[in-house]
Amino acid sequence: MAKPKTTDDAELIKEWPLSTAATLGSSVRAKGILLEIRARLPLAVRKSLEIEAGALTLAMAETAKSAFRAASSVVSNALEDIESLPVIPREIQDILTISITERHRWLSDGRLPSAGTRTVKLRGRARKITFHVFDPRVVEDILDRDLVTVWREEDAEARAEKRRRAALKAKLTRSLKTKAKTPSKPDVDADDASGSKPLGWEEFSRDGLLR
């Protein structure tokens, strides 16, 4: 089996540095850009494009000048608008340092706006998956304004309020149950007035019939 060609073996090399505006400071995003551009290249030369030290590197043999020029053109054209490439779920989680649960929650309540959906077919599988993507400039704004910290504080306050309401409801429920189980006390004065003296007693006494 022939040994795969490495960058050291190659004679034709070209590099394209990736800006922070493109990667948003994320190695996961940088890898996503690499995969996106590889997908636009002919299958035979895709592995010739790698990412090293924050730059895309195309390395091919001297004998592949024609293919090298064609691939270089594809990469250069793809990078012209790479900063607007939608951010996919695993990238936004790395960029904002958030969990899958937080991404779903904030997407659902509108704090994390979707830029649409994307459908892809999984390699080697028949089924397709659809997921939300995000505008890189919106993601950058969320990062710059540290909105993740604000949202987490809002969520903590909401959870505390929910626990407080639940505790109050539970206390009220217990109180109502206790009240329902406790028998009412008899009215002593009422018993004295109506039970110990016969009807008409006052008139009977006033007429002097007991003297």
UniProtKB/TrEMBL annotation:
<feature type="compositionally biased region" description="Basic residues">
    <location>
        <begin position="172"/>
        <end position="182"/>
    </location>
</feature>
<protein>
    <recommendedName>
        <fullName>DUF721 domain-containing protein</fullName>
    </recommendedName>
</protein>
<feature type="region of interest" description="Disordered">
    <location>
        <begin position="172"/>
        <end position="211"/>
    </location>
</feature>
